[in-house]
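Look over both lines:
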Amino acid sequence: MNLARRGLPRARLSRAWQRGFTLIELLITVAILAMLAGGAMTFADLAVQRSHEQELRSALRQIREGIDAYKLAADANRVRKSADESGYPPDLDALWRGVPDMADPKREKKLYFMRRLPRDPLADPSLPAEATWGLRSYASDADNPQPGRDVFDVYSLSPGLSLGGRPYREW
């Protein structure tokens, strides 16, 4: 419909057309918003990865402290070990299921080194906690960790890299 026929003056007619946005302005605005949203998603992904790394660091610390406590108890003759054993736990379950306290004459009391076994936050959530960790025995090399008769250390089985670029397996 022709606005000039309605009796609007020319100055008012030109202002009416200037109030809206052009297609180019709208496209630029949408492009800027898309870039900002993409940056926010990248930031969210980094925050999630950082959170998983903190959980992994905490879980490794808990398990390693439990292994060290077990070794100290074995050296203090509170955990049964034979002469050919290292004194480290035979498996991760011994840390949270408990072992008989050799200081108790009736052997009714148990020693517990952890409340529960934490899981690797980077592992498949359908796996049980004990299956999420790689095990290194006392007899194996640090460069090539292998399971064995005892658990000297644990590591993540995740093939990924940390935010610092170091493989999770080396933590």
User: Anything to note?
Assistant: Residues 24 and 30 are 10 Å apart (CA to CA). The mean pLDDT is 87. Strands lie at 99-100, 110-111, 133-136, 153-156. The chain has three helices and four strands.
